[in-house]
Amino acid sequence: MTPPFAAAVTGIGLVTPAGIGVSESWNYVLKGESVAAIDPELADLPVDFSCRVPGFDPVAVVGPKQSWRMDRVQMLSIAAARQAIEDAGLSADGWDDARVGVVVGTGLGGMATLESQHSVMQEKGAGKISALALPMFLINMAAGQLAIELGARGPNLTVSTACASGATAIGVARDLLRSGAVDVVVAGGVDAGVTPMTVAAFAKMNALSTRRSDPRTASRPFDADRDGFVIAEGAGMVVLETEDHARARGARVRGRVVGYGASADAHHVTAPDPQGGGAERAIRAALADADMATADVQYINAHGTSTRLNDLVEASTIKRVFGTRPAVSSTKGAIGHTLGAAGAIEAIYSVLALEHGVVPPTANLVTPDPKIDLDLVGSPRDGAYQVAVSNSFGFGGANAVLVLAS
């Protein structure tokens, strides 16, 4: 029998509302506090608070000449990927560029550019839009610009499965490695969706929390008083390698992607299957891919959006598959919902949980929903964790689940 394929995680990078850099973001999330705040750029909208990346300087990332040629989503992607490459001890000068792939997941692409350039066209006419508008807002350009930045000439892919995009990208990257097409893949998720149109659209759907009197308590996954998610931005990137390649160059392996499962609910454009059938299929497929039983899993990083319906459906699915034994938390309580970046950021948090032996808490979990019967983690919990599952679900019924191991 062929043993399960493990992709070695040799580098990680985070640019999140909890901080720029892995240690900054991780240490803040462990505090169990939210970063949500009133957002002046969302003034006069139905929801006017968000979770933004603090102190992000586009000029410092790509320089003054390039900063106005890229959308924020592309620069967030580059910033996180640079961290991951450095963490992996790699350099574009020292790899076979044809054997390096890039897979990026994003739900929106360059939304800020699309909105601003539409306004220019409406106000000044079509002749006044930027000649760079297309490459700035096209959804594939987060990956395209990253390949240019890194000099990576292997497969260059963009996947878009809404809020499951980051997890899907890591799963697809692992499949590329398993196929033998590449030796190294830079993969992850990114979104810069804190824009007026995006926020207005989510608010119209009643998906966002309206707790503007106290934004820091607004995102409260699995809590009885949850009323919606808090929109956020960010990027999470990993360097994945075949274990042989990592071993040959003496790389530090921070964790392993050992299983990936994907499915579709085929139920509704925005609501999850109320029975959780699609989510369960993805979870069981990921476990089968890893050749693991439910008893092998000690921690689940839940999708946990803080919406009434999602949290109930996910919780009931987790209990049906795993029972009440694994520790469960959602880091969206701290950093909000980063949309297409969420699956990658949360996979990285899962790797860090295994590496450091501590499960991050669910911020704002004050009164757990009595309908949810799980081992919900409300404060950091130390332990010997070897295997974690990271759930990601998106509009259109897209489900992606990763199994991570130490």
TrEMBL record:
Gene3D superfamilies xref list:
3.40.47.10
EC number from the UniProt entry: 2.3.1.179
What pathway or pathways are given for this protein in its record? Lipid metabolism; fatty acid biosynthesis
Might you name a Gene Ontology BP term for this protein?
Answer: fatty acid elongation
Record SUPFAM superfamilies: Thiolase-like
Name the source's superkingdom. Answer: Bacteria
Q: Which reaction does it catalyse?
A: a fatty acyl-[ACP] + malonyl-[ACP] + H(+) = a 3-oxoacyl-[ACP] + holo-[ACP] + CO2; (9Z)-hexadecenoyl-[ACP] + malonyl-[ACP] + H(+) = 3-oxo-(11Z)-octadecenoyl-[ACP] + holo-[ACP] + CO2
Q: Name one GO molecular function term.
A: 3-oxoacyl-[acyl-carrier-protein] synthase activity
User: What InterPro entries does the database record attribute to this sequence?
Assistant: 3-oxoacyl-ACP_synth-2, Beta-ketoacyl_synthase, Ketoacyl_synth_AS, Ketoacyl_synth_C, Ketoacyl_synth_N, PKS_Beta-ketoAc_synthase_dom, Thiolase-like
> Which positions are catalytic residues?
C163
- Domain Ketosynthase family 3 (KS3) residue range list: 4-406
Q: Which UniProt keywords apply?
A: Acyltransferase, Fatty acid biosynthesis, Fatty acid metabolism, Lipid biosynthesis, Lipid metabolism, Transferase
Query: Which family, according to the similarity comment?
Result: Belongs to the thiolase-like superfamily. Beta-ketoacyl-ACP synthases family.
Q: What's its job? A: Involved in the type II fatty acid elongation cycle. Catalyzes the elongation of a wide range of acyl-ACP by the addition of two carbons from malonyl-ACP to an acyl acceptor. Can efficiently catalyze the conversion of palmitoleoyl-ACP (cis-hexadec-9-enoyl-ACP) to cis-vaccenoyl-ACP (cis-octadec-11-enoyl-ACP), an essential step in the thermal regulation of fatty acid composition.
* Entry protein name: 3-oxoacyl-[acyl-carrier-protein] synthase 2
Q: Which organism is it from?
A: Amycolatopsis decaplanina DSM 44594
